[in-house]
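Reminder: ligand-aware prediction takes two inputs, not one.
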Amino acid sequence: MTTSTDITLPRGLLIGGDLVTRSSGGMHDHIYPATGRPNATIPLAGATEIDQAVDAAWTAHREWMTFTPARRRDLLVALADAVHENLPEFAQLNTLDYAVPVSYAATAPLLEEFIRHFAGYVDKPHGSSTPVSGSFDVNLIEREPYGVVGVIAPWNGSLVVSASCVVPALAAGNAVVLKPSELAPFAALRFGELCVRVGLPAGLVNVLPAGAEGGDALVRHPGVRKVHFTGGTDTARTVLRAAATNLTPVVAELGGKSANIVFGDADLDIAAAISGHQGPLMQAGQSCACASRVLVQSSVYDAFLDKFVATVATATIGDPLDPTVSYGPVISESAANRILRDIDDAVTQGAGELVLGGKRIGGALSDGYYIEPTVFTGVDNSSALAQTETFGPVVAVIRFDTEEEAIRIANDTRYGLNAFVHSNDLSRAHRVARTLEAGSVWVNHFSDISPQGPYGGYKQSGFGRTGGLEGLQEFLQVKNIRIAMR
Ligand code: NAD
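Here is what comes back for the chain with nicotinamide-adenine-dinucleotide:
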């Protein structure tokens, strides 16, 4: 298996434009999930470095706001150009981060798109004026940046979070301290280096890989005026408790257990292709948007299952750096063990029938953390398999008869991030989409984040939005200014 490329991995903490290699958070062996062997030893941020980064960010924020909107816009456009020139390198860094197949090179182009989109907001009006009842005073409603924003990224999304959180924060006038997971530090660090290279003020984007300790220090820091957290639901509870220290506002982008509803009138080939990609195959099911509950109408249950299982079974499994490979390992040994335990429990508890996969992959891939794409059919929606976010390549197929039953099952979960509807009857698709308790509903489509579309959760999948005007406004606070007219 290919274990190295000609890329030099960035190792350090990017603070105030400098790559710092000594830190108080200790050293971490970054393991490449495809081989189980170390990629690099990296320093982690502790409270001391978080403090330095927040200071540097405040200095950079003040400088950033002395630039005209046109200059800020042009610098962001230059950043988009630099990302564009480095797309192949970003794809490889993403792979070295968490062994996502290099063929799935979607995230760096997304970063470029978000920068181009939000650069266009820098010189657009953010405020308004209103009359005031009972006077002729001037009343201005202005939207101002928070100053310094802390952004915490999960290991499976450092570039997506850079795109959808860091970029609008900058466009709104903030500086950012970005904390990628220690499991996936490299692409985020390279993004930070590009920010410095194109001439953004040093410290406008600080990148500090860290674990829970550094993340906690960031959330509790009094100089951080807003926290944008993306990660698991349980970690979010801890983050919210820490944010209560300074009453720091938090956006929370959390997990999901998405329903993927296939109606009898759907195009079954397209539905099977989307369901396979969006279910166990994309990032080995390690995506917040994983369509892990596949609800299929009885009239097409067997026909759909044949196509779906055939799609999943033909994934090309192997070396993530090989461009022909579409399916890679899960993130770690402990994640692999957890997922296998969930599969065993589902079998023992009779949650459904295991019709595909279910085992660790051996042979040439045995050193990596590969698990077979796994499908259970005839699953009971109240089972742990259907209610818990596995965050691995495991899907539960559930049978339904009527539209009402599909909606009831789809909404019977504590999560509400994404939902998918497959139907050629657009009246039905629209009707069902309106009743689904999810922040994003995709009709005859896979989950495809765009800078124009607000993305985020209902229920325990979180609150706040990334993307769209809503995503920009997360990084602006409102000030009302009234001027007396004499
Ligand atoms: P995680 O919750 O374990 O960690 C997320 C981040 O929080 C990491 O950077 C981690 O180091 C940090 N962290 C951990 N403890 C912390 C603490 N006490 N204080 C501050 N920060 C702390 O999640 P993960 O395993 O990295 O990612 C998987 C989860 O993320 C899944 O639940 C997935 O659904 C979710 N996710 C959601 C979205 C979305 O947009 N809604 C996108 C990607 C991933």
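The radius of gyration is 23 Å. The chain has a mean pLDDT of 97. We will return to this case in the review session.
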